[in-house]
């Protein structure tokens, strides 16, 4: 039965689902915004918001809990540094999901998930306009 099960299965077993959400959360913290399917974004939002809450607490126990979940110390340091101080005055609702159109290949509904208060630089690459 499905009683008290909030996270959708996403057609994966429990270990694969935990690994997927861990990697998506690490990518979201690292990049500030990621593009994924709508179902994965909706499953990721509670995980990411709990991690931001850990980052806002900022104590050693919270840091160890975040390292145990994310398994990447550089991502955890960014979570406790940039993301936590950007969301310091907000009481919840740290993530925003913006729906996009369907994916071209299989028509899966796509979405952006991003942090509300964090500035995201879209694009990338090395632009050398000085020369």
Automatic annotation (TrEMBL):
GO cellular component terms, A-Z: cytosolic large ribosomal subunit
Keywords in alphabetical order: Ribonucleoprotein, Ribosomal protein
Domain of life of the organism encoding this protein: Bacteria
Biological processes, Gene Ontology terms: translation
One Gene Ontology MF term: structural constituent of ribosome
Pfam families named among the record's database cross-references: Ribosomal_L17
InterPro entries: Ribosomal_bL17 (IPR000456), Ribosomal_bL17_CS (IPR047859), Ribosomal_bL17_sf (IPR036373)
Keyword Mitochondrion applies: no
The protein's assembly and partners: Part of the 50S ribosomal subunit. Contacts protein L32.
Classification via HAMAP family: Ribosomal_bL17 (MF_01368)
Family statement: Belongs to the bacterial ribosomal protein bL17 family.
Protein name: Large ribosomal subunit protein bL17
